[in-house]
Amino acid sequence: MTIIMDGKKLAEKVTGNIKSEIKKYNIRPKLAVIMAGDNPSSKIYVQNKQKKALELGIDSVVLTFPQDVYEDNLLENIYILNEDVNINAILVQLPLPEHINTKRILEAIEPIKDVDGFTSYNFGLLALGYNPYCIPCTPKGILRLFDEYNIELEGKNVLVAGRSNIVGKPMMMLLQNRNATVTLAHSKTKNLKDISINSDIIISAVGKENLITEDMVKQNSIIIDVGINRDINGLKGDVDFKNVINKASYITPVPGGVGPMTIAMLMENTFELYKIQKNYQLL
Length: 283
Ligand code: NAD
Description:
By secondary structure, the chain is of the alpha/beta class. It has 2 domains: 25-111, Leucine Dehydrogenase, chain A, domain 1 (Rossmann fold, 3-Layer(aba) Sandwich), CATH 3.40.50.10860; 137-259, Rossmann fold (3-Layer(aba) Sandwich). The protein is 40% helix and 16% strand. It has 10 helices and 11 strands. The protein has helices at residues 7-24, 40-56, 71-83, 102-107, 120-128, 137-148, 168-177, 192-196, 241-244, 258-277; strands at 3-4, 30-36, 59-65, 89-92, 157-161, 181-185, 201-204, 222-225, 229-231, 234-236, 250-251. The strands form 3 sheets. Strands 1-11-8-7-5-6 form a 6-stranded parallel beta sheet. Strands 3-2-4 form a 3-stranded parallel beta sheet, with helices on both faces. Helix 1 (7-24) runs parallel beside helix 10 (258-277), helix 2 (40-56) packs across helix 10 (258-277) and helix 6 (137-148) crosses helix 10. The longest helix has 20 residues, at 258-277. Nicotinamide-adenine-dinucleotide (NAD) binds next to helix 10. Nicotinamide-adenine-dinucleotide is lined by residues 138, 161-164, 166-168, 185-187, 189, 192, 205-207, 226-228, 258-259, 262.
């Protein structure tokens, strides 16, 4: 029987714990979000993050900038947030407008406020197998799902499809740190099926509907679908869920799988940064 991994339920458990700790200790962590341009998906994501933060007792502020914002203007605002003792976590909503040098903007964030773990300081620590201040939210959430369902990673063959700095690459590093054998596939990978059919676990973070089909997966494999594809019928992942489910031992749905875990991990990272900055010992 296939187990559908319930990311929504686990996310509620994680955020419920954060909410009660924040209440118990009467504290107010604060998240700052920088959003530039008019990407409609970004607006929805930022609204959802703010809504969740409010629900948990995390303050948030969103600084919005027009599509033609100057890079230096964004940098100046990040420097101000870095210095502001009331701000614990800084998030830059991606993608930024094309004329902006994303690397330069992300690198300006103080590593101790880098809630996404995207600065080279935190990313480098993760690559080296050390503890960064924060681990990128989506791969961290996927790891939490594995742990919740007692899925052992050591020695497993894992295919990660998609090599973005946000999902694929940090996912690969986290899995390697847990002694999995990882193949990182990308747009130039040839014969994805040859790799997928021999994988114990497939994590797809590409953004292509029906990229992973039933004939590409082996019996009893574990399928994690990160992809978000919107069409008139709503949200779909990268996996042909209704057919792949016949072969999988565990599978995440879209929506209700990885997505809610990403937001939950953002809340957790914000709370953890607060604790680090305040040298806060919970009793
Ligand atoms: P991206 O959109 O920056 O890049 C896509 C990646 O897929 C690239 O590395 C590319 O090389 C690779 N790719 C393209 N075609 C491929 C193929 N045929 N086989 C293997 N790899 C291929 O990546 P991203 O920002 O990580 O986003 C990927 C998907 O995950 C998107 O649909 C995005 O919306 C979604 N996403 C979901 C969450 C969540 O919380 N659920 C979080 C982040 C991203």
